[in-house]
User: What shape does this take?
Amino acid sequence: MTTIDIKAAFFDIDGTLTSFTTHVVPQSTIDALRALQSNGVKIFICTGRPPAQMNVVLDTIPVDFDGIVGFNGQYCIDDSGFLEKHTLDATDVATIVRWLDEHEDIVACIGEEDYVYFNHSNDQMRRTWASLGKTAPDVFFDDPR
Assistant: This one.
């Protein structure tokens, strides 16, 4: 029989670590995360959230993660201080902004390392944000330009 030597485990936040119903991490999940670490497995958050939105979530989880893969892989940091950033290309940003101009009904969340804003709000955006409960950070509105 072969054993697998797991070195790291990656976890999403919304609907995975935190419940969409209670907006908290169950104690059983916290215990499992700690058990992984006590067995030498590094644990990471892997999320689409930008760094500016991480503390509102990390403050609700009493576990020290070994790192974060944020912004869908654009921002990666580990507990040793390693940091890797991959910003969007300026041409891609211009394409996105032009597309948003052509689709005024679309709500876009624009994230930077230390700031996250929306181009506008609508009922769907408010419902989605409400579904995040206490893990939803403050919402700011700004011109994407």
